[in-house]
Write a structure and sequence with these properties.
Strand content: 15-25%
Number of strands: 8
CATH class: Alpha Beta
Structural class: alpha/beta
Number of domains: 1
Helix content: 25-40%
Strand order of the largest sheet: 3-2-1-4-7-6-8-5
Shape: globular
Low-confidence stretches: none
Order of helices and strands: EHEHEHEEHEHEHHEHH
CATH architecture: Alpha-Beta Complex
Radius of gyration: 17 Å
Largest sheet: 8 strands, mixed
Mean pLDDT: 92
């Protein structure tokens, strides 16, 4: 069995090393690849990534002109090895607990998506030791449509065949493409599994997509999701 971690990097020369090192520290005995797409960075990220790639056999670096996160994730997906059975989606400013992949594989059962705990880092008012788990598990499509971050995280492990069937990440939903994908997978009958024995670290920094989001972007992504899924109402709440 093999697992591919796919990451995006945009001007994260000082952060991407934490993500890479966390993948390299994984305790699983299975083969773990790491495919990183640099999304048109104009800092030294491409050079940093190429240095990592040159030093480690299981790291692959892809460079594209700026496509935003969904396009960069799709570029990474196109470069995962053919024998990949599971994909872990990891943003370039986040990182994994050492046992993340091992515990995901232990918890998968017959599921198509594995959700772990989350610890926040860099968030004012949040204790980084607190472990957050989804309050509602095995969500319906309507529950996912309602948009609660209690259902599934951006960092998760997904069956590669399910990602292929869904066609990857919807580029017009950009930073909300993970939400769009979960809805797509749920509509296809994919199932969720959960474990609180591991977690990822969700880092909040000045360059985080959530800090850059505006009401106009939020509405644009929601309208595209409404069109994509042929629904009559916009998903989620109003921008706040």
């Amino acid at each position: 069995m093999s697992v591919a971690v796919i990451s995006t990097c945009f001007n994260q020369q000082d952060l991407i090393g934490d993500a890479i090192e966390s993948v390299m520290r994984q305790t699983t005995a299975e083969t773990v690849y790491h495919v990183i797409c640099d999304d048109g960075s104009d800092d030294d990220s491409p050079m940093v990534l190429r240095q990592w790639e040159a030093a480690h056999d299981h790291i692959t670096v892809v460079e594209v002109t700026n496509r935003t996160v969904a396009g960069a994730l799709n570029a990474a997906l196109l470069n995962v090895p053919a024998d990949t059975e599971w994909v872990v989606v990891l943003a370039g400013d986040d990182f994994l607990a050492d046992n993340y992949i091992e515990e995901c594989l232990n918890a998968v059962g017959d599921a198509d998506i594995v959700i772990t705990g989350m610890r926040r880092t860099g968030y004012e008012g949040h204790d980084p030791r607190d472990l957050h788990m989804p309050a509602v598990r095995n969500p319906t499509v309507d529950e996912l449509w309602a948009w609660e971050f209690t259902y599934a995280w951006a960092v998760s492990m997904i069956r590669m065949s399910s990602v292929r069937e869904a066609g990857g990440f919807h580029p017009l939903t950009e930073g909300d493409s993970d939400w769009d994908l979960w809805i797509d997978l749920a509509m296809r009958g994919c199932t969720f599994s959960y474990t609180d024995k591991t977690w990822f670290f969700y880092r909040y920094v000045a360059t985080s997509l959530n800090r850059a989001k505006t009401a106009e972007l939020w509405d644009s992504h929601r309208r595209e999701m409404m069109r994509h899924f042929k629904r009559d109402t916009l998903p989620g709440p109003e921008f706040s």
